[in-house]
Fold these 2 entries.
Entry 1:
Amino acid sequence: MGGQACVLYGAAEFSRDTDFAILASQANLSRLRTAMAELQAEVIAVPPFHLKYLKKGHAIHFRCHAPEAAGMRVDVMTKMRGVDNFAKLWARRSTLLAEDGTSYQLMSLPDLVKAKKTQRDKDWPMIRRLVEADYFEERERPNPKQSCFWFLELRTPELLVELASMHPETCRKLIKQRSLLKLAAAGEAIDLIGALSEEERLEREADRNYWIPLKAELE
Amino acid sequence: MISAEQLVGEELAEWYSLTPQERWRESAKLWEVFLSLGGSLDPEPDTQSPFFDPGAPSSRPFDGRTGLRLIRRGGV
């Protein structure tokens, strides 16, 4: 669900850790412990490796010491702000097959975009790139679900205006869910820049507020 | 329609146009170069992350070398 997923979906990121969204159950945690033992991984930082922390929304951070993965960081999470529970994420996942036959289970693109709406600067250009890449790949033959996804998640003023001109009726219907689509419908690309920036500011503030009690638990 | 090249430039447009498998391969190449130069596997300090812990221990370099180091600084 992290940088590697972004690469596979079309954004360019050089991420040095690997992030996993996992099902928080006692049985699954036992499997994770076995996998981490194979990687000779130790828990670093806080919190400790307990189910209760995962269920509350904390990430558990590991560093691997097995020779083939020495130094690699692995982070696992099970609950993210604004993102559905694991069962729904799993049902919507994408599966990609690499040339060596390895299959990768990725959080779906819409879910990944939601998970990236954090307080961090670096996540916002990434969201823009992820949705742009999908738009350029599929805009010639979108299904209604894809058009809705782009209307609700594109962060590129020029593309929002273009999309609104191609699908004016869908745009009109979605204004209730994303008010800045009014500007897209009116072709106001310049004003969209400010509206997108405000949208980002509000999400980042919401993320900071979400984390205040969680961080307090660890202090 | 706006082209990807117009919007984001040729380099990123080319990246967008790759298949996931091609992007994975290119990313793996970048990793090989990074590690061959002694790059560290420690994530960059991310002070904006709610998980940021300034006291977290760091790893030793992947191959025992001292990691990337400056050997020549260009003028500004």
Note: Residues 4-36 of chain B form one domain.
Entry 2:
Amino acid sequence: MIDYVDKIPNNVDLGRDRVLQRALEHWQPAYLNWWYDMGPNESHAYDVYLRTAITVEPDGWAQFGYVKMPEYRWGVFLQPRDAERKVNFGAHKGQPAWQEVPGEYRSTLRRIIVTQGDTEPASVEQQRMLGLCCPSMYDLRNIFQVNVEEGRHLWAMVYLLHRYFGRDGREEAEALLDRRSGDADNPRILGAFNEPTPDWLAFFMFTFFTDRDGKYQLCALAESGFDPLARTCRFMLTEEAHHMFVGETGVSRIVQRTCEVMKENKIDDPADVRAMGVIDLQTLQRYLNFHFSVTIDLFGSDASSNAANYFTNGLKGRFEETKLNDDHLLAEADYPVWEVSGDKIVEKRVPALTALNERLRDDYIREVEGGVGRWNRIIEKAGIPFRFKLPHKGFHRAIGNFAGHFISPEGVVVSEEQWKQHAREWMPSAADYAYVQSLMVGRVVEPGKFANWIAPPTRGINNQPLNFEYVRFN
Amino acid sequence: MPKVIYVSANGAAREVEVPVGMTVMAAALKSGVDGILAECGGVCMCSTCHVYVDEKFFGKLPPAKDTEEAVLDIAAEERQPTSRLSCQIKVTEDLDGLIVRLPEKQR
């Protein structure tokens, strides 16, 4: 029997919901088994300085302290309910937001929740071996924080499945623990979540690019007319912010260190840079190209009837829907998408309703550009004549209008042969991965010490010093 | 009740009465001031409530803690000497008339 009040912090009155209790009594042990099997490798006895959400209030939810991760208090939190909240878009616009699942949208909503929920354990699985080669105790603590919060996000989605979808929901919740990232027979649902995260550069890129996709998906779902889903996603966003902080500052610190070494030694040839044991800017650009392109596939096809239906039915809105100044119906509006015509990329106006994936992708790209600009500021301040560039959104796409075409990072349609000729410049090669992997030998865990290839952060976690013992290995 | 003046990037000013103890961020959200997003909900994790505090008031604020300093480093608009996160500024009587300028973008 689970002691709900003590073990599962929540604001959903879990202690009084017998149906939910019975469902979670079954699921919680299975979840812990999954964590022991697929959570961070060899970490279960560590005491980790983690924050735990125990309320949704800004003053209360981020409680820091040492925790063994299997004993982490994975809670269930929804943003407080606004009794006046309405469905703010689509055919049901103006109706009171739904507190129960509308029967006609039951299977669609379940699919949306399962797809979102599936990404949460997937990323934990992808990252589970990285603790063995961490660049510092600070970084080790951060990846563990990201992992337990992805675990909490899984709990959040499973709560919705259990609470609102009956037997079907319980079966889906179990399946979330059965699929495995990269498994040939039972893979995770979305492609990017089956890609390996083989090294810390990939981890930082993932948390910068792919967790930010998660943010945009959560923002769109936080507009949902199904109020429990909206409130759940709204609170998940508060945690997602830290994950993106880890990604952006992680890459920043790598860029910083590389620039320091280039300046100190007056070198710019990638081979010379590698000889100094840091990651050359060209390799960073190729990692960027890969992670950006794989991530923007996650937004789906440029023109999508599913996306149109989600919107019209009030299930998934646009980014910051309520701040947009239009009719929130989009019946008459259009939106530009791009497609390949011969050897050109041409603009095509399509109904805005069908282009909602593309619109969300464009919103995302604008934000990503800001982060890349901040990395470039580091390089600029170092006086190095190199700048990162986001590749064209048609580059290396597997989904949508660009799938099956060969597009250069500059947005030029090229032949397959030309692509192959340039692949080594545009995408990380086996040699790049091998080089980065060669830097990840063993882990750096002496408090206050950092691997050679990454600069220390400017400050510690929760106002603690950099040499704080963020992880006790016991 | 103390007043806080939010000045948007285009110079438009908006005066808001803020209860003592409420943060400059929370007051902005409650009053519908554009330009403060607070994506992390006010727990000093995201930098989307970044403001430039008027120099007359900057010295009256308690210094930023390390966590705030770290998060300011990823602000969308480059930080300046008077940059602060508005989620970390609690309004006091002494801050009556506080002027904060909002950056052009927060993400």
Note: Chain A touches chain B through 28 residues (CB under 8 Å).
